Q: What sequence folds into this?
């Protein structure tokens, strides 16, 4: 027998006699709190073929059943690759679509990547019709158990009628098929209102993601109207109004982007959010650093910077900053990440894609506007050669195969790789972030599992 290469073992900081074993492939978490059953000693004995105590022998079948121990002849890399192929790349249970009805925006945030591509404009009515027809054809072909549509931009609320048309027509199409439609939106929140929410809820509108870049003063330095006025109060009041009318029916995800200027104010923001009327509607909060874009590789206009929802590429100072904010969220009682998954994100899944305002398909929202990375169009049923290559290429390098974080990242964020190297084929390793985030997650899990006993 041999331990899984995807096992991570840590001892409790509060009680060194307790250990948590976490497997990143199977997502199994096992608490060891019996002084006669030390997992580190057990695995050492197994690897060195030493005899086991009766209690250790008793634990072996369960560990084998969960994939935490393996028979010697087991090819675990093949197990991972089969999992990746079936459960990630070729999965058909979920189809996730991000739609950008416009690249225009009513704000003028200096760091926004979409300052590069706003000239691409608005999704025209004929493109909306083609997009809906394309989605119907794809749903009929794939037959997913759930269809997720996320609206993004630009600012999607600049085109509310487009959002309502897509939602209405896709709901009418999927409901008779018994396929649930889940709708969500990433919006700056300035134009979000209870009337729009009320119209969208019957079609499966479930969540919005709102960005606060610090408490009021610092947010109003970064997220500004074109006349340079701040937006904090408008967004906050809109969320309060929606909560007053639809408490609990629309979930809120909170995002935030930070640099040295606004980082400290995020702690005050967390306190404000916890005390807000809509605190109970918050399903997730997460804050990440603003990422500079290499203007010669991944930017279309020099001097811009970028911050995407799920870009993961951080230096040690940024990692420490994110972890301190996560600790503050846990301390305050606001929900945040339970575990440090960086991926595999929707980029890896064949039936997940982004549709730009002109009807072009992309494998990642961050690629919109980078026309050389377009994966196809809504007028064609299959990906073009570029899209098929992005779906099928190997996403990790050979030496990644010995890393227990491979199921978490599968080679890392490909936009970050593009930004750093100009190539999608190069891995983007964020091992230091995963190490620190996983340790924090496992320490919390020890406390939670201990309390359940």
A:
């Amino acid at each position: 027998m041999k331990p899984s290469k995807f096992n991570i073992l840590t001892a409790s900081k509060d009680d060194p006699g307790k250990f948590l074993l976490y497997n990143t492939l199977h997502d199994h978490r096992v608490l060891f709190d019996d002084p006669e059953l030390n997992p580190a000693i057990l695995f050492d004995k197994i690897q060195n073929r030493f005899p086991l105590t009766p209690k250790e022998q008793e634990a072996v079948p369960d560990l084998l059943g969960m994939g935490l121990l393996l028979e010697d002849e087991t090819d675990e890399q093949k197990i991972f690759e089969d999992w990746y192929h079936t459960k990630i790349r070729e999965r058909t249970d979920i189809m996730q679509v991000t739609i950008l009805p416009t690249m225009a925006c009513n704000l003028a945030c200096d760091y926004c990547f979409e300052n590069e591509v706003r000239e691409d404009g608005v999704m025209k009515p004929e493109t909306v019709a083609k997009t809906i027809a394309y989605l119907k054809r794809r749903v009929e072909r794939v037959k997913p158990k759930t269809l997720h549509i996320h609206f993004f931009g630009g600012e999607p609320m600049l085109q509310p009628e487009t959002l309502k048309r897509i939602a209405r027509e896709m709901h009418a199409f999927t409901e008779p098929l018994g396929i649930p439609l889940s709708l969500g939106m990433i919006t700056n929140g300035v134009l979000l209102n209870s009337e729009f929410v009320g119209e969208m809820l019957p079609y499966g509108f479930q969540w919005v993601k709102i960005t606060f870049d610090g408490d009021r003063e610092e947010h109003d330095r970064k997220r500004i109207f074109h006349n340079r006025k701040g937006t904090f109060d408008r967004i906050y009041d809109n969320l309060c109004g929606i909560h007053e009318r639809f408490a609990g029916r629309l979930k809120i995800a909170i995002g935030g982007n930070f640099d040295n200027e606004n980082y400290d104010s995020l702690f005050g923001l967390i306190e404000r959010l916890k005390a807000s009327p809509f605190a109970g509607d918050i399903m997730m909060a997460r804050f990440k650093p603003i990422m500079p874009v290499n203007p010669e590789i991944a930017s279309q206009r020099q001097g811009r910077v970028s911050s995407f929802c799920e870009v993961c590429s951080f230096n040690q100072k940024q990692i420490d900053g994110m972890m301190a904010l996560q600790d503050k969220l846990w301390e305050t009682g606001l929900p945040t990440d339970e575990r440090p998954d960086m991926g595999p994100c929707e980029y890896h899944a064949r039936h997940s894609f982004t549709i730009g305002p002109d009807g072009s398909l992309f494998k990642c929202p961050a690629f919109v506007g980078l026309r050389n990375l377009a994966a196809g169009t809504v007028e064609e049923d299959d990906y073009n050669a570029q899209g098929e290559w992005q779906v099928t290429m190997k996403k990790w390098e050979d030496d990644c195969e010995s890393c227990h974080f491979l199921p978490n990242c599968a080679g890392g964020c490909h936009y970050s790789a593009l930004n750093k190297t100009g190539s999608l084929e190069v891995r983007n390793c964020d091992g230091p972030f995963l190490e620190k985030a996983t340790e924090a997650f496992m320490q919390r899990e020890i406390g939670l599992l201990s309390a359940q006993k």
Q: What stands out?
A: Confidence is low (pLDDT under 50) at residues 298-312. The chain is about 35% helix and 15% strand. The first strand starts at residue 2 and ends at 3.
